[in-house]
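4.2 Preliminary Data

To establish feasibility before requesting continued support, the project team ran the inverse folding procedure on a target of 267 residues. The structure was first converted into the token representation described in Section 3, and no sequence information of any kind was made available to the design step. The complete token record follows.
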């Protein structure tokens, strides 16, 4: 099991307060890493990091601000001395405050340019900047693992039918922003793996499927029937894959897209 040990390694997780982000942090901590949980809410992320154990830390960062990331980098290096693992998890997934307008606003013909640009800024530029700031440290120390969190929708188009209600009416559409940005993340992984391979920095993508999170039962059933395992994911279902990519267990793996989706994209 030493292959999967992260003892003595320092791991940064962006979007650490999200449903899967918390599970990423917990898994890394259990594997022995010093975890830096990073998110926008300073008090909440510090409290969450404290719940993991005293050796872990929480930092407020804005993934779209290079200055914010550079300040975080310096704090991490001062405390831990190295940066060994980066999990680019922060992302925007469309939510519509007014359900009555969700269908209208999410339709491609009406989808706001501002929303599309915001997703590009966080989901793509944020991954670029985090990789640039933290990955440069890894390249200098000649070792490191960058894990970019993408999605099944980075590989296939959204099935809009699963967003219909019991009456067969479309409640909303999965917008273009999420598939476009997650597809970009997958190819950015390939670029960076090729660029930094000779520096000992491995870069891989983890593409998860949909996670059950208090959705209505009709949606859960619609989604589940399209997977080979017949269910949506639990938030903890990605922990093993994450530790594999972060650890020496995947020492000869780079530029790859590890798909963990219950078989959604297999058929």
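Position-by-position output of the design step:
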């Amino acid at each position: 099991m030493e292959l999967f040990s992260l003892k003595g390694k320092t791991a940064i997780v962006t979007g650490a307060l999200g449903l899967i982000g918390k599970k990423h942090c917990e898994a890394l901590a259990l594997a022995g890493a010093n975890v830096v949980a990073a998110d926008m809410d300073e008090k909440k992320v510090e409290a969450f990091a404290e719940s993991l154990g005293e050796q872990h830390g929480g930092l407020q960062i804005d993934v779209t601000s290079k200055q914010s990331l550079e300040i975080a980098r310096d704090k991490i290096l001062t405390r831990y001395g190295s940066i060994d693992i980066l999990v680019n998890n922060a992302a925007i997934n469309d939510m519509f405050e007014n359900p009555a307008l969700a269908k209208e606003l999410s339709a491609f013909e009406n989808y706001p340019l501002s929303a599309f640009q915001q997703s590009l800024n966080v989901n793509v530029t944020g991954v670029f900047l985090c990789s640039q700031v933290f990955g440069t440290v890894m390249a200098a120390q000649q070792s490191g693992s960058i894990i970019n969190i993408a999605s099944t929708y980075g590989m296939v188009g959204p099935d809009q039918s699963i967003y219909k209600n019991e009456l067969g009416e479309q409640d909303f559409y999965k917008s273009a922003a999420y598939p476009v940005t997650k597809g970009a993340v997958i190819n950015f992984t390939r670029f960076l793996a090729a660029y930094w391979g000779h520096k000992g920095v491995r870069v891989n993508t983890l593409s998860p499927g949909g996670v059950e999170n208090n959705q209505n039962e009709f949606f859960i059933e619609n989604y589940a029937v399209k997977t080979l395992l017949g269910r949506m994911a639990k938030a903890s279902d990605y922990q093993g894959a994450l530790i594999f990519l972060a650890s020496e267990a995947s020492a000869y793996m780079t530029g790859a897209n590890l798909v963990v989706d219950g078989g959604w994209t297999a058929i």
